[in-house]
Amino acid sequence: MRYNVVMGQNERRNMPLYTISIASRLCHLPVHTIRWLENNSIFEPARTEGRQRMFSDTDIEFLLEVATLLERKVNLAGIRVILEIKQTHHLESISLEIVEEE
Q1: CA angle 87, 67, 80 (to 5 degrees)
Q2: DSSP H or E stretch at residue 47
Q3: What is the pTM of this model?
Q4: d(CA 81, CA 58)
Q5: CATH 1.10.1660.10 assigned to 11-101
Q6: What distance separates the 2 farthest-apart alpha carbons in the chain?
Q7: How far is 32 from 20, CA to CA, in rounded Å?
Q8: Where are the domains of the chain?
Q9: Would you give the DSSP letter of residue 15?
């Protein structure tokens, strides 16, 4: 029997596949820094039933972006502001696309 499972690209990108140790290696961030970001509400990774953190490709991209900010010596408050501006800009772009479609 052969299964034909079609999964969208977005679903795949958001599927939690990596443990914190793998995410740490992929992002070049120490595990304690990833936990620090979570504890400071910068992001929240998925968890297994056993409470193990799991990271998706989308999470890895986000952590790489944060790693770049940390390399540039941006502090926690600065990271929050930058992420908020990016989110606001993203929402404005989506709103503009919707208006243009109407």
Answers
A1: 35
A2: strand 46-47
A3: 0.77
A4: 20
A5: yes
A6: 55
A7: 10
A8: 11-101
A9: S
